[in-house]
Amino acid sequence: MKKLIDLVFRMNYTLRQGSLDSDISAVVYDSRKAEPGCIFVCMPGAVTDGHKYIPAAIEAGAAAIVVERDVEVPFDITVIEVDNARLALAELSAAWFGHPAEKLTTIGVTGTKGKTTTTYMMKGMMEKAGLPTGLIGTIEVIIGEQHIHAVNTTPESWLVQKYFADMVDAGIRYVVMEVSSQAMKLDRVSGFTFDYAIFTNLEPDHIGPGEHASMEEYIACKGLLFQRCRHGLVNAEADYLEEVLKGHTCSVESFGLSERADLRAQNIQLIHQPGFLGVEYDLTGLESYHVRVDIPGDFTVYNSLAAIALCRRLGVSREAILEALNTIQVKGRLEIVPTPGEYTLMIDYAHNAMSLEALLKSIRRYGPERILCLFGCGGNRARSRRFEMGEVSSRLADLTVVTSDNPRNEEPMAIIEDILVGVKKADGKYVTIPDRKEAIAWCMKEGRKGDIILLAGKGHEDYQEIKGVKHHMDERELIAEIIAETKE
User: Fold this and answer.
1) Where in the chain do CATH 3.90.190.20 domains reside?
2) Is the dihedral of CA 78, 84, 85, 91 positive or negative?
3) What are phi and psi of 293, to 5 degrees?
4) How far apart are CA 433 and CA 444, in angstroms?
5) Residues of CATH 3.40.1190.10 domain(s) within the chain?
6) DSSP code of 387?
7) 2-96 carries CATH number 3.40.1390.10
8) 67 — alpha (psi -120 to 50), left (phi > 0) or beta?
9) N or C: which terminal CB in the chain sees fewer CB atoms within 10 Å?
10) CA dihedral 248, 250, 255, 258 (to 10 degrees)
């Protein structure tokens, strides 16, 4: 139990009726979880409005409600009115869990691409240096030995604060987390100030119904992070950097390839051996030493620079940084899977035309004999993505293998036919193999020395969604099965 007056102490609010002296049993924003003595936060949403569920919450025993407008409720219910219920939820949650962010060093990473890999790099470096570090991101939440499957890139504010509190209880003192533009827009990371914020890059994305109304709003939401942190570390060459930093209230340090960056990578070399792709470079500016990263791609240079920039601020040693970069592997992000063949097999989450094009261009720089690109597209999503991905793969890969992804409630062959419309625009070679395991097996059988086989779209996902049901399917397991069956 906590006193209501203590929960609202840092908030801007108007008490419409009732008392702030009552005891509160829980902070709730889903009326189905309401319980006797709780405070229910009525959040307006894209699908429904929390104000509709006030009667249900009161019937379940709610003692107080947080609203954005006038409501009529029994006189024994405390009513608190605020301008922004989502912000109120974040502030109430922070207070409920004892403001755990103040006991942690909080690090937020934002950008269109690179968030996941950068956070894992940071965590790896920090833990090599003996700094106990938690992680909140697209793939999972990590609290010590506990791994929790993630639903959103950035969870709802109540869950963020709970995870922070669990980390404090587990003896963790640092947390790195992915911060999406939606999280900033919906106040999921309000109620505390980040110690460090990292900006990787920004490209047109997430514009449309249910996301951002315009590119301007997308940029503005990214920029909010740098008005809610103490220190900003930014990609000096990123598009829209000036707009993102507009109105920033933090100190700013930069990383990149150009002379204007404070921490720079020079003499970049790509490493390509059978079953291995990587990159190495000389670090200059604020630090000076040679770096080798066991993850391929031009963007790996930027991601590793971001991680190094952060870790040098935290006093992480050069040895810990280099050891982490030599051993890091992020599930489904440029993940190299060992096979007996003389080709290189890679799994990546690239699931739209923009990310697939960037990835294929980066792979091409490694000088492969051929690129075999296997992918499908999700059902019940924009059809335009299918045409665009088909055209990109046909244009940039040597062979496109069109297969199934998450068909959801659509017919797999209907999705594949849409992809082929795009494939045929660029006149590249292609094959169609609807069963994903059969498609992977075909690629592995066809792979030659020096080839790079890219399995795109599924990444870290370990399921295939068909007709509303998620069936277990992990590409790593499929590859292992194929290898075992081939031996037999």
Assistant:
1) 335-487
2) negative
3) -125, 130
4) 13
5) 100-327
6) H
7) yes
8) beta
9) C
10) 50
In the numeric block, the tokens 């597209």 are attached to 377
Nearest C-alpha neighbor of 407 from the set 461, 470, 347, 344: 470
Fold designation for 335-487 = Protein-Tyrosine Phosphatase; Chain A (3.90.190)
| Rounded percentage of the chain residues whose pLDDT exceeds 90 | 87
Check pLDDT > 80 for residue 436. yes
User: Which residue is associated with the tokens 């890139």?
Assistant: 153
Residue count of the chain: 488
Q: CB–CB of 436/463 below 8 Å?
A: no
Region class of 6: left (phi > 0), else alpha (psi between -120 and 50), else beta = alpha
Name the pTM for this structure. Answer: 0.91
> What totals of helices (H) and strands (E) does the chain contain, helices first?
15, 26
Q: Where in the chain is the domain with CATH 3.40.1390.10?
A: 2-96
What CATH number belongs to 100-327?
A: 3.40.1190.10
Residue 275 and residue 253 in contact, taking contact as beta carbons nearer than 8 Å: no
